Structures
1.
Amino acid sequence: MARQALIVIDIQNDYFAGGKWPLVGVEAAADNAARLIQAFRHRSTPVVHIRHEFGSDDAAFFTPGSVGAQLHAKVRNQGDEPVVLKHFVNAFRETELQAILQQREIEELVIVGNMSHMCVEGTARAAADLGYPVRVIHDACATLDLEFNGQRVPAAQVQGAVMSALAFAYASVQSTEEFLAAN
């Protein structure tokens, strides 16, 4: 089996109730992410946390140094699990993520987190372009309702569109149960 790492993307306080940018279904997705984190820890398999901050204090969310920009309590890093700070959608862009993965001889990525249509998708596509086999755990990811051309797009449709596009060419897309049963 290829050496895996779990990449936990942007499960941060601002995405939860009371935060600046709450997502649909974020509690259930974070619970599934926490189950996966525990499974990876139990196997002594690397877990890498990604945390987003915007560059200015007037950002809509994830303002530098804010409580909202901190990792949520359900998924906080432990021990030597690195936390990669990013400022862009793609977690590989201008970060040490690739170096961390190379140092640990990681060959396959399992991705969970937020937002499905932005940082999860951007990172999954970048990882595939870098040659990593990628698995995205769809029910450990969350998104929100969007608007396009005056039309509201419900979060469930956003999620379905993103996951089907990733499954078409970039990643194996599985549920938490499917992944845990096979690993």
2.
Amino acid sequence: MTAPVLVWDDRMLEYDLGGRHPLHPIRWQLTRRLAEPLGVLDGYRTITAEPATTEELQRCHTADYISTVRAASEFARGPEDPRYGHGLGGPDNPIFPAMHDSAARIAAGSMAAARAIARGETDRAVNIFGGLHHAHADHASGFCVYNDAALAITALLDEGVERVAYVDVDVHHGDGVQSLFEDDPRVLTVSIHESPMTLFPGTGWATETGRGPGHGTAVNIPVPAGTDDAAWLRAFHAVVPGAVRAFRPQVLVTQHGADAHRDDPLADLQLTVDGQRTAYLALRDLAEELTGGRWLALGGGGYEVIRVVPRAWTHLLAVVAGRELDPATDIPAAWSDLAVDLTDRRLPTTMSDLDGGTGAVDGRGRVGYHPWQGAAEQPVDRAIRDVRAAAFPLLGLDPLDPRD
């Protein structure tokens, strides 16, 4: 394996929506401060990026939107100034002075990592600043200004990659990426998220399967509020591997919002860091099986920025690099000393949420599960049944065949 690429530029920390906004740049800083002493970043090749040009951003965003973001960044009267439109202003997407440059730099980082993979300079890359999956062609949404995930996929296509699979494990539906590629047969978008009945952005139903020439290339797995590790992983394994295998991608792009965790304040799923780590390992296995290891991993949401996000993304960095951490690994004392002044909650002592730090989640989640096999149906099983019925036939798969 070639040396993995890490996108890191301190200037990306200027993507700061201010004050008490839940998407706080400290989550990126604390991740690095945790990963470094654990040796996770050893062997990574770090790249930086200048802000994406207008021409590059226009691969996914309208010229009017880009010029409006620039103008708002330069002349904002206040963080909630609503005069610009395009979703800018207000508590979710406040205007801030470095808005254009920092968002365009994050986008450029994901694009540069994608190009490095397409050109054979690396097999794997990570941009934990990225994963801003809610941004649409002409408006900001859900804390996201420019959609770096979509721009990275476009960069891969521009480099000659013929099929890209995008898998999104954020608790929120990857609506911006889906909307930008829902009519493109070259891109499969798969999103597993909390049901739109209970969570923003209110999209991501199983019946959303793409349109036009892209009909069949959107797969959505809306799981009910309260879903835990075992049920979430059961849904993941019952849908994601089969769908991605059927599509036969040449590169895998994944989004790793850590907000499906049970402690996240903005959502209602019940995953642990251990369950999230299990998903990272499964996605790495898919990349090894299907794409020759070519894998771009992006960050995303996650709003328990001290207890959860740094551990989850440190595991992600370790898995991408092929040097996964034992979940029982102790948290370095220096990191705890730094974090203790930032929260009044008890800090974790290991890289695991489970008793004994074994990292072992319920085995039912590892092998997938199909509700027609005779076990008592649970709410998540209805979601599995619905998405397989809606999406699998369009991918040439039998929704009732447990081998798919």
